[in-house]
Amino acid sequence: MRAPRLLLTLLLATALPWPGMTVSYAAPIATASTFPAAVLADQRYGPDPAQIADVYLPDASTQHGRPAPVLVVVHGGSWKGGDKATPDVVQDKLAYWLPRGYAVVSVNTRLMPQARPAAQAEDLGRAIAWIGQQAARWQADPDNLFVMGHSSGGHLLTLLAADAAMRQRTGAPLWRASIILDGAGFDLLDVMPRPHAPFYDEAFGADPAEWAQASPAAQLTGPQPPALFVCSTLRPDPCRRAQRYADLLTAQGGQAALFGVARNHAQVNADVGADNEATRAINAFITARLQR
């Protein structure tokens, strides 16, 4: 029997700000609080030179005496490209969430050919463990950690969430919620036998055992963070595949929601933080899950 879909409208109706915090969905006005109070660039969370992150800390005036919740951003790039500092990855997200008192951490992992996708997901696990260890130094709250990933970055965070053994190996705790922006590769045992982009073969090879190892659907066990899937409606596959994985999560007792937008694959990511319906939906989803 098909698992019931979780209605986004119910999630939005429960979105409440912290006591004393005003939540505005309009684009922020440029003020001192729009910009980070500090930027800690190229912070190492592992021994490899690629295992680095940029940390953007909010102005103290935005925090209302509370530790800052943390938004972790994972870039896309077909598992072989992309960078944490690309404007489309961070620019509008910083402009939107810094004034709301969030710390933002943009993460790089190793990429292909140096590391296959499962190893990249382990890098993300190490980064999340490191963020939890460093949070107090940043006046941030490790118990209010949210992870957002675009495209292949959405695959990495979904695989890490699904694979309890991987989280245990890397020391990554479960985070408050996942936001997957036009994600890829949720069910590789379904994707790989069908027509697909050539970069999937580069990433996952021809061995079904390797597909299963790197497939969130095949590794899905135990509790999962609530997940919001933001997908492009300009092609049929993104929302169809996101909905199938969301149904798997809800069938196992998890929480998942789908939000379709009429934007292309790159715009789904680049426009997050601008004044639009997707940004408002994401912010409401996150706000509803803040631990107060």
Considering the chains and any ligands shown, give keywords for the structure.
292 residues, Rossmann fold, alpha/beta, GDXG_lipolytic_enzyme, 8 strands, disordered N terminus
Description:
By secondary structure, this protein is an alpha/beta fold. It has a single domain, classed as Rossmann fold (3-Layer(aba) Sandwich). It is 37% helix and 18% strand. The chain has an eight-stranded mixed sheet, sandwiched between helices. Helix 3 crosses helix 4 and helix 3 (117-134) packs across helix 5 (164-170). The longest helix is centred in the middle third of the chain and has 18 residues, at 117-134. Residues 1-32 have low confidence and may be disordered. Pfam families: BD-FAE (PF20434). It comes from Achromobacter spanius. Keywords: Hydrolase, Signal. Belongs to the 'GDXG' lipolytic enzyme family. Residues 1-26 form the signal peptide.
Topology:
Blueprint: H1 8-13, E1 38-44, E2 52-57, E3 68-74, H2 87-97, E4 103-107, H3 117-134, E5 140-150, H4 152-162, H5 164-170, E6 177-181, H6 188-191, H7 198-204, H8 208-213, H9 216-219, E7 227-232, H10 236-251, E8 256-261, H11 265-270, H12 277-287
Parallel strand pairs: 3-4, 3-5, 5-6, 6-7, 7-8
Antiparallel strand pairs: 1-2, 2-4
Helix pairs in contact: 3-4, 3-5
Helix percentage range: 25-40%
Quaternary state of the chains: single chain
Order of helix and strand elements from N to C terminus:
HEEEHEHEHHEHHHHEHEHH
Mean pLDDT: 90
Taking strands numbered 1, 2, ... along the chain, how are they ordered across the largest sheet?
Answer: 1-2-4-3-5-6-7-8
Give the CATH topology: Rossmann fold
